[in-house]
Queue: 4 jobs
Job 1
Amino acid sequence: MQSPDDFDLDGMLDGMPAADASHEAPLPTRPARDMQGFLRKIPVSLTLEVGTAEISLADLASIDPGSVIELDKLAGAPLDIKINGTAIGKAEVVVAGENYGLRVIALDNLDLDALTS
């Protein structure tokens, strides 16, 4: 019986025939799928972020109806449009019928076609 120190892996490999990739059958290729229509139907959550504030737990515990918490946005500044939490542009609030809406001011490279390439 050989000890692990006497084992000659290189010698064993030298005696084996080399693998020749030219004799292997090529893998079949599937035609590329057009995913644009499918991806465009996936629902996402669009939000308009007014601003944020960091407060202590003590301040949070003292909040009552009527309390005012100052946000990090200036009044009248464009608001952030977010898709699933990722900022994609700026907008302002408008009234659309009986609901609030948003008017897009700027978009940051929103290219849905890039998702399929």
Job 2
Amino acid sequence: MDDIAPICPLCLRPIPAGVPQSRHHLIPRLRGGKGGETVLLHQICHNEIHVSLSETELARSYNTPEALRAHPRLEKFIRWVAKRPPDFKSKTPGKRRAR
């Protein structure tokens, strides 16, 4: 029986077995989210979240998959990555956000 690949809650593409992936704390551990809810993401999607938003922004305003998808930079990234196959991997495009 074939296992159904989980769906990345950021880009909404399947996460095939063997593709780099990681768990994202919806509220960062350093901002009170230790032991809190996590979601499984493509590694490329997880990287883009953390280069786009600070831990404080994640905790305050972007602590759901829906809120993350609505962020302007992440919306642009999602449109870009949606054109790639589910097993696509790459270095994170663009510059790291200013601190």
Job 3
Amino acid sequence: MSNDENIYRQILKAIVEHQLPPGARLPEDRLSEAFGVSRTGIRKVLQRLALEHFVVIEKNKGAQVNRPSKTEAIEVLDSRILIEPQLIPALLTHWDTAQSERFRAMAIEEKRAEENNQLADAIQLTARFHYELATLSGNKVLAHFVEQLCYRSSLILAAYGTRGSVGCDCGDHSQLLDILDQGHSDKAQNWMSHHLKHIKSSLILETKPEENIDFQKLFGR
């Protein structure tokens, strides 16, 4: 793993596990000192996190952990609840043994991340599972929309989620795959709807005020 990738993963993990709360400032000089790398290297990592919407970079203000509003969090999940179940009948027309095996491999990878307490990886794998399912429906416009909603959901889960938000508390994805293998469209739609509603209800829509973060203690070597 490259040094940039390692730094990226450490900062993302700290965001997802709320060691860096929404709104926390990310000064390049202090991060550079903590990781023992140049500010240029830190800037590249922060730009990558900004492209993924986990970080916001403002001119003359620097970078900070993105802070999605509570309204945005609710609207994003409500949009997913409206759209994703409706794509089930279309994706079932493309469902076969190969697709089942592909998605089961994803579910296993996601489960492994949860069991290893790799919350950042679990959130990203959950998002991939959902937008890959949407893509299978064949509706490119809605699939792209779901993909964007899933990216925004990843940030929302990082800001407001709990371990239960990506774990079995909200339903194991392998349960959905069993239903899809049986070809039960209505049952799969109901499962997806309940699954997304559970994720929404698991959110804790409160944020702690930013504290004076000791980057050396958090990331220092």
Job 4
Amino acid sequence: MKLPVYFISHGGGPWPYIPAMQASNAALAASLVDIPAQLGRKPKAILMVSAHWETHGVFGITAHPRPPMIYDYYGFPENTYQVQYPAPGSPELAGRVQQLLSSAGLPVVADTQRGYDHGAFVPAFVMYPQADVPMIQLSIDAGYDPALHLSLGRALSPLRDEDVLIIGSGLSYHNLRQIYGGGAAASAQFDAWLQHALLASPTQQRAALLQNWETAASARLAHPREDHLIPLMVAVGAAEHDKASCIYHESQAFAGITASSFRFDAAA
């Protein structure tokens, strides 16, 4: 049975490992914990497209059998630089992804050294704390071309029939410089557009709307750099004709912003 595809807002830094941040992220945590229940079975593997891995001109795919940790955050408690998420990698799945992307004419290279960044291990830890589901990461291209990443998602789509869970991990709002000064209004305005584009618009119009995302209200205030939005393009491409549902929506998320996560599924 074909698995759904997700775009998740992964929250701020290593929040699940900081008791003081857990309460303010309770709704986000509940939405992530619910994903395994929604699936009804444990997937063979997770393919995580994280906003925190960018490459130039070629997509990277992790092929380390035991990926190390990448603590790509700053200013957090010392314990957050010691956490481990020992989910195994999957060189076999990495090879399958290489095959799919190459067949679609998309350049791809296996990275046998890279580990898990926090855009991957933080949500994976909340979803599968036992670290018993293999996971690989796929990079985004630093040119941030929406059409390219929609095509990337289309190339990955067959994995849904192979029991691989595709997750785009970013944030529906990501402007850290303005998060405490106008972030609440900008995030709410952009989120309203996002809800309309994904939920209220016909699926055949969704890709075109996302390619023109900069015309949305407060688009550049919400995403001065669209690194955290691009994983959504991949998710939509992988589930191009499927309905969307909002699985997490909070108007007073961390720092008072509006944040959302989405599921794409034929049965949605």
